[in-house]
Amino acid sequence: MGIEELEKYVEVFIAPDKMSADLFMSEDLQEVGITLDMLKDFIESRGVVFGVDENVLSDAVNNHKCYQMITFANGTEVVEGRDGYFDYMFDIENSKRAGKPKIAEDGSVNYKELNIVECVNAGQVLAKYHPKVDGVNGTTVTGDIIKASLKKDMPPLRGKGFSRSEDGLTYTADIDGRPAMKYGMLEISNVFEVSGNVDLSTGNVYFNGDLIVTGNITSGMVVKTTGTITVNGMIEAADVIAGGSILVKGGILGGSKANIQSDGDVIALFIENANVRAGLNVLTDCIVNGEVYAYQDVVVTKKSTKSGKAGSIIGGTVTANRLIKADNIGALTGMKTELGVGIPYKVHREYMGFKMELENAQAELSKIENAIAMVEKRQGVNIELRTKLIKAKIDKASYVYKYREICEKAERNINMGKGAYIVATGTIHAGVILKIDEATTVIDDEYNSIVFKRKEDKIVSFKYTPPTE
């Protein structure tokens, strides 16, 4: 039977999008002598060459299907891929965080916690790249190819302060700092600048790196950094904590509420009614009613301050391990002023206790090591006993390490305080209390250009001679 004869009994309908084809039969194909092969040839002659389901055709021939539309061919849809993209682990727009106060679980709002600075730590993942996924072409029942659109990979991130993994997919911070996208480049900066004051408009500031404040740090605010803090204005009654030094060009006016802590130096034009602790030195023009401590030295000398208090320590308590030096100490009014240098006996006593604890721990560690050596020499090693001894060794070694660090720190403190002294290059007034190690004295008169040191159990004084230039 030819194609022309088949046309009397069979029609093929191709969908407008060419993604499917249907068959319509007006007679029972077996009764009119149409075989499966004849039907397949006829379908091909009508342009259907892809996605033909022979089972459907066989069923149409063998099961007397007629007067119904039967879908016998389906094309394959195109599967679109996607472009490569970066998944950032920080807010690249910095808009989701800035200016939004922190809401506590009870619903209260802390308007000082605005989170204006997003920080990352060294080793933290910054971004992950997802490579492009190519699409899969589709095919119509007529055999036409439907091409998937071409997808593109993005170029690697450029910038500084980060590293890229060997496979090029993971970007990791090399330093602590603030991540930012600038002109399409990723930059981790360990310096952040607050233009103007740190106040309710900025919220508290926490930063992994160095901070510059061009204005003041106002009362009630909190500023914490892992690096240095430079304040071009003043610090009011605020909490300011730095892993590095703190430089305050306008001075500290604490209102008896300021808390200033630095692991480095604290350098300020003046310190008034503030609690200040420095991991190294405190350098200032003037201290008035301050609670000031420095691990090394406190030096108060007249530089640029025009006030009559310049170079003076007036009121409060000032303590240092090695040296306190000021132009003038105390006041004619008798305002309580207390200065202390050196290391109290309590610290020496604690050091001896730490040292004894370390020696005992070292002896116990040596015994455990000897026991392990003996067990390992025996034939048929007792695995359970050996495991228990090794665990004991690890625990004791950790204990030894801990107390070795404690002893070394205490020893450094003691050495720092050896020969500690207090200097008044100008005048020290009556009523000032001096403490050097365990010795204490109260100044009974006014003295000029004088040095105080400890000799045996007493504080002695001698004339101060300025160093020659």
Would you mind describing this structure in some detail?
The structure is a single chain. With 469 residues, the protein is of the alpha/beta class. It is built from five helices and 35 strands. Strand 11 and strand 12 form a beta hairpin. The protein is 19% helix and 36% strand. It is elongated and about 135 Å long. It has helices at 3-6, 36-45, 54-62, 345-377, 383-417, and strands at 10-14, 20-25, 69-74, 85-88, 102-103, 109-110, 125-130, 138-139, 145-146, 159-160, 162-164, 170-173, 178-182, 185-189, 191-194, 205-207, 210-213, 222-225, 229-231, 239-242, 246-248, 252-262, 266-268, 271-278, 282-284, 286-294, 297-300, 312-320, 323-329, 337-341, 421-428, 433-436, 439-442, 447-455, 458-463. It folds into four domains: 3-74, no CATH class; 85-135 and 146-189, no CATH class; 192-344, no CATH class; 345-417. The model has no long low-confidence stretch (mean pLDDT 88). The strands form six sheets. It has a 21-stranded mixed β-sheet that branches. Strands 4-7-12-11 form a four-stranded antiparallel β-sheet, with no helix packed on it.
